[in-house]
Each structure stands twice: as structure tokens, then as C-alpha cells.
Amino acid sequence: MAIKRRTFLKGSIAAGAFYASGFPHVWIKDHSQAYAADGEIKVGVLFSLTGTTGIIEESLNKATLLAIEEINDAGGINGMKIVPIVEDPASDPATFAEKARKLVLGDRCVSVFGSYTSASRKAVLPVFEKRKNLYWYPTLYEGRECSKNVIYTGAVPNQQQDEFVPWLFEKFGKRWYLIGSNYIYPKEENNYCKKLLAGLGGEVVNEEYVPLGHSEFSSVINKFRNEKPDVIFSTVVGDSVVALHRQYRAAGLDPETMPMASLTTSENEVAAMGGDAAAGHFTSAPYFMVWESPENEAFVRAYRDRWGKDKVTHFVSEPSYFQVYMFKQAVEKLAPSDITPDNIREAVKGVELTAPQGPVRLDPATLHTYLWPKIGVCKSDGQFEILQQSSEWLEPVPYKAYPNQVCTENGLSEV
Ligand code: ACM
């Protein structure tokens, strides 16, 4: 992972040499209350290993652990080891909240890396806000959140849709069918999509939501047949993505004339469904596994060496990986006795590093991340061909669908 030189010099070499030398005047008032003690920094790793989103969250767990191991193998953070405490919240928001409380209150983790669905992020949010802890969330999501207790490293709607929707409209046409899983994320993404589509003169022929974990798409596919939309815009998540694609293909529908355009279908779901089921469909994301950069080559190699030669990386595992390096850069700036969630948040503001997708930056005002939107088409080998990349990193605008609200350093502001 390449660190931007300016930040690296500030955050790593200077502070690292100082604190790692065992500087004798570092004094922790009350060891039982310290977050960094006995050369260890505890963090929580809260991704589902079972249940309907286990299909994707298991890979976020692996990417997080890989980054932690790499950092520890390279000497830790100022000589201190990161100790991951792994919990399996089983794709259940209530279990997420229970495990988050355990990690924050019981284990006294200074930060927790976790969640794929917005439902699970919303479930843990009160724990992190009440206890003034820090949740590192790597997943694309609907925006419309402005918490001092979450670091957001996945894409928000403007970063996935601003280039994708006009591109699809131009290429395929104006009649769109919106299909999503039934919870906050797909509804807010579709809200944003409808605004963009209306501006282009497009038309929504149907908007439909299926329960999380849904696996029987025959009636949906009949509606695709009857409505004949130009684009099927999908925000279906988890193992439903696999079922939807396989049943679409089995029904003999053709991506050339009725493509699915997804914000949630990555190499990971494609590996589960088989490349043939996904071939010809489109995804918008800041990262694809085939992206050519030295940082991505190193990431893919390390991930496969650690977890298996057949494993894939994707647009949620990549931020799961680089956000641990952002955490490192922030913690590196702090003396051991100053390592607290609040201080880490302040220290991570404005941090830049060269991630596998390209240079990324944590926006100090919103705690969201500047990213590089790309459009890819899936091929039968299960990889995407990148058709387009944004010409510059794109600012995250989490409230873009709500122009009278702005996320600022002081919280949500009405304008
Ligand atoms: C999501 O629920 N943010 C994919």
C-alpha cells in the first residue's frame, strides 16, 4: 500500500521513530482505561461470516485481516501490534448491535471495522455515537448520514451513479425497471436514480423490492418480459444477486437488449453464480479486480497468497483493506496515551494514500472518501472489462439528493 509521501513523512517516519523508540516519557495515567496498552491496540472486526450477506461479508473480514497482518508483520503501528477481535453477527442487525456493544464496552476496542448492509450499520450506529467510538464502514451506501462516529470509505450515490446513469441512458434507452432488496439502501439509491433519470427525460416502468434473502425471481422475470425495459437497474444484495442472475439467464433473457445495471454485483457474487450468468451485465464501482496498478497487483497477489489462489477481490473488499491503512496513518500520529476514538477521527481527516483503485482521500468535512468511479461489463470468465473511468477522483457528496442539507465538520446543516 503506497502512502502519499507528504502524509507518510508526517504520519509514519517522524512520529513512528519517536514513539517506536520506547520514548521513556510516554505515560499512561490509568492503564485499565488506556486503549493502547502492553504494546497492543485492540480493534473489532464485525462482518457476517454466516447468513444471507455472508457471501460478501466473509471477504470483507478477510481483506481487513490481511491488512492487519501486513501492518503487524511490518512492525505494527509505532511498534504496537493491532489485535483483531473477530465477531460473526450472522447477517442479523440485532446481532450486529449486540456484538458491537461487546466489542466497544467489553473488549474496549478503539475502533471497529464492519458491516455490509446499511441495515446493520444503522443498527450499530447508536452504540458508536453513545459510546463515542469509531466505526469504519467500507461499503457503498445510500449517503444521507453525517455521523462523527463513522468513517465511510465506500461509494455514495453520486460516486456510483452520476456517470453511470447518463451512460446507460445514452447507450440503452429511457425505460427503466428498478429492482432492489427491501431496505433503506436500495430505496435511497433508487430515489437518487429517479432524480437523475427524470433530468434526462427517462421513465420508470416499475420499481419493486424483494425481501432480503429472496431467491425466487420467476414473477419478477415475467414482469421483465412483459414490460421490456431498456435497463434493469439492480440494487438487490447478498445471495439474491446470484439467484436473480441465474434465473434471468435460465429464462433466456438477453443482456444485449435488456441489460442489468447494478451497484451491488461484484466479482464476488459473480464467482458464486458463474461468469456465464453475469456476462454482458454492467456494474458501476470505484474498483475492479482487473484494474492495472502496482498497488492493485500487490493487493491481489497478497490476498490470494493469504486466502487462496481462486479468491477474488472486489469493490467492497478493496476499501475494507485500505481503510485499515488509513487507521494506521491516523494512529501513527498519536502518542500511545492519546490513542482514543476521538483523536483517531481527528487524525484521519484529510489522510491520503494510494489504494489499489488509485489515490484516495478522507474528506475532513464529511468523513467520506474521494474515490474513482468506473463502469465495467462482466465477461464469462467472471472478471469485468473496464469501459470507463472518471477523469479525476470524485468528491463524496452524501446529501446530494437532498440539496437543502449539507454534511459539515459540525454535523448536518440545513441551507
Ligand atoms: C448497503 O446496504 N449499503 C449495500
Polypeptide structure, described:
Helix 3 packs parallel to helix 4 and helix 9 crosses helix 10. By secondary structure, this protein is α/β, with parallel strands linked by helices. The two termini are 39 Å apart. The protein is 40% helix and 20% strand. The strands form four sheets. A seven-stranded mixed beta sheet has the order 9-8-10-11-12-16-17. Strands 2, 3, 4, 5, 6 and 7 form a six-stranded mixed beta sheet that branches. Strands 1-13-14-15 form a four-stranded antiparallel beta sheet. The protein folds into two domains: 199 residues, Response regulator (Rossmann fold, 3-Layer(aba) Sandwich); 168 residues, Response regulator (Rossmann fold, 3-Layer(aba) Sandwich). 51% of the residues are buried. The site of acetamide has 9 residues, from loops.
Task: Explain briefly what this protein structure is.
By secondary structure, the chain is of the alpha/beta class.
Task: Please describe the topology of this protein.
Blueprint: E1 2-3, H1 5-20, E2 36-37, E3 40-46, H2 54-73, E4 81-87, H3 93-106, E5 111-114, H4 118-130, E6 135-137, E7 150-152, H5 157-161, H6 164-172, E8 175-181, H7 184-200, E9 203-210, H8 218-227, E10 231-235, H9 239-250, E11 260-262, H10 267-273, H11 275-278, E12 282-285, H12 294-307, H13 317-332, H14 341-348, E13 352-355, E14 358-362, E15 369-370, E16 374-378, E17 384-389, E18 405-408, E19 411-414
Parallel strand pairs: 3-4, 3-5, 5-6, 6-7, 8-9, 8-10, 10-11, 11-12
Antiparallel strand pairs: 1-13, 2-3, 12-16, 13-14, 14-15, 16-17, 18-19
The protein binds acetamide.
